[in-house]
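RECORD TYPE: inverse folding
INPUT: structure tokens
STRUCTURE:
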């Protein structure tokens, strides 16, 4: 038993010492941070600040139809990915049904931002997986009316975004086309939030 232990230790020592000598002689290269992760980038002696990468904001109207809460991540200086959530229930406003309309949606968008400073033209495209339902009574004959539909809406954004490069107050306003089975509809969106 002792002989086996000595042989194993001798083999480990024989492989360990040469590997540390060989690896110790290799030139160590500094690790370069990824531009997607690093807060600042360096070119020579000049420090160049990358924009604040994350933003959280509430959008009134827009892709949530009434409102949505959103997280936006800047993939590069000019591209951002947005994911949002919206859920609401309102009384029916159609006059023929006394009941409620409910909506739950998840806006997912890819946005292109122009410009180098804080002000940007924002052009985006994406989808809104959603569920819409109506429940209530038809007012003329008193029959129950209910239905639910799962749908995917196409959407876009053409607007203005104010997002300071070092973070802070975020403001967005824009035209929001929505494409569904009922055709193309237009809305507007107004967003307030914070970039960090």
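DESIGNED SEQUENCE:
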């Amino acid at each position: 038993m002792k002989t086996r232990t000595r042989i194993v230790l001798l083999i480990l020592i024989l492989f360990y010492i040469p590997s540390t000598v060989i690896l110790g002689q290799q030139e160590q290269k500094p690790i370069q941070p990824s531009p997607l992760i690093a807060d600042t980038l360096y070119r020579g002696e000049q420090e160049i600040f990358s924009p604040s990468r994350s933003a959280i904001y509430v959008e009134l109207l827009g892709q949530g139809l009434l409102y949505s809460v959103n997280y936006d991540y800047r993939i590069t200086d000019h591209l951002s990915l947005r994911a949002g959530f919206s859920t609401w229930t309102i009384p029916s406003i159609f006059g023929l049904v006394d009941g409620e309309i409910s909506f739950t949606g998840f806006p997912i968008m890819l946005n292109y931002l122009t410009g180098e400073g804080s002000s940007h033209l924002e052009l985006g495209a994406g989808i809104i997986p959603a569920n819409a339902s109506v429940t209530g009574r038809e007012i003329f004959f008193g029959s129950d009316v209910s239905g639910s539909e799962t749908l995917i809406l196409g959407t876009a954004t053409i607007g203005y975004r104010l997002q300071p490069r070092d973070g802070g107050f975020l403001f967005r306003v824009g035209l929001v086309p929505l494409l569904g089975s009922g055709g193309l509809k237009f809305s507007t969106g107004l967003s307030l939030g914070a970039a960090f």
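NOTES: The chain is about 10% helix and 60% strand.
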